[in-house]
């Protein structure tokens, strides 16, 4: 009968050899944060045979424990380390050791056999679009400034005291609305004076005409001299001019009284009131208020002189399409009608100024506001157009994935001519009628098999492929 201490010594010796094949540095961290030791090549080869041999030792140990030999029980209680001290060299175990080593060698050969199972790659779900040969406009995108269609600085045409401000700051006014009232009593007195002068001069004129007629009759009768007759006639003509002056003074006095009521010359919006009631003002000196006409309203912008010839061609054909939009606004752009092209190019910037009119019925734009201006110029030559989202950047340049007849994709480098909205015109790289990938680029490589899916299916598959952390975050 073989001493059980020999088996314990062999098990301990083999376990120590297995630990020597292990690297003592942590290779990575598991999900609980603990370090896992890297396994070298020898450990990977001998791990499974050693485990098989250790299982055999355990089976033999339990079989020995079933007997009532106290010596064996004592050996088991002593443990591995004390058993080693009592044991002899493990190679002295005879035929049992040789049998175990052969069994170990067979298990090692079996464990080193590695079977690799290759799985066919799954098609990548993508959305696609078509390459179309068509006309696409040239868009000139620039910044513009909103200006009032008309701006009037209200001043007084007469001197006087502001009695009352009939308008409020920021008020919408109509043409003819009363804005300010000036004390008109002095001008009314002047009017009465001119009327009295007219009455006096009219009486004198009537008497002078009577005397002039009388002198002419007496001159024909050779009763008075010719000189006296002409003197009387000159007095009569002079009084006629005096009466005309009186009439003119009366009209001027009436006009001054009318000027005492300052009215709006146009429809618009009033600004801030720049003068208070009770202020004495001079004629045509101080600005009382500024009124801006904002319905319609103007937009002024500049474009590079490079497009001047094309712009003039569209202006001549009355096909200049101008769109105006506020920055970061979600509403559709407003249409603007061309009004004015400057007669020279600004030499400092190399641009030419253009002015256009916007209806602005809902007061969407305001004077002084900065806006985005887009000019659409139609070209006659068709170009290759793809959806803008199909184009992806890379170190070699922009590229697109094109579907082949085999259900795979190939990557092609493209050159961009211009982009308009959600479409991009390309110079080369694709052909008319080809199909390009518009979504799903992250999982693609040249030669990948793809599956064309709808938008809803694609979004569902993307959500199912999301990482657990992202799903937990949602």
What can you tell me about this protein's structure?
- A hairpin with a 5-residue loop joins strand 18 (399-403) and strand 19.
- The protein has 4 domains: 4-112, no CATH class; 141-146 and 286-377, Efflux pump adaptor protein, beta barrel domain (Elongation Factor Tu (Ef-tu), domain 3, Beta Barrel); 157-281, no CATH class; 383-473, Beta Barrel (conserved putative lor/sdh protein from methanococcus maripaludis s2 fold), CATH 2.40.420.
- The chain is elongated and about 175 Å long.
- Helix content is 36%, strand content 30%.
- By secondary structure, the chain is an alpha+beta fold.
- It is built from 10 helices and 23 strands.
- It has a 6-stranded antiparallel barrel with strand order 5-12-15-14-13-16. It has a 4-stranded antiparallel beta sheet with strand order 4-17-21-20, with no helix packed on it. A 4-stranded antiparallel beta sheet has the order 9-8-6-11.
- It has helices at residues 4-20, 41-65, 70-78, 80-86, 95-112, 185-220, 226-259, 308-316, 455-464, 468-473, and strands spanning 22-29, 35-39, 124-130, 132-134, 138-155, 160-165, 172-173, 178-182, 261-263, 268-270, 280-281, 287-304, 321-325, 334-341, 351-358, 370-377, 383-387, 399-403, 409-413, 416-420, 423-426, 435-439, 450-452.
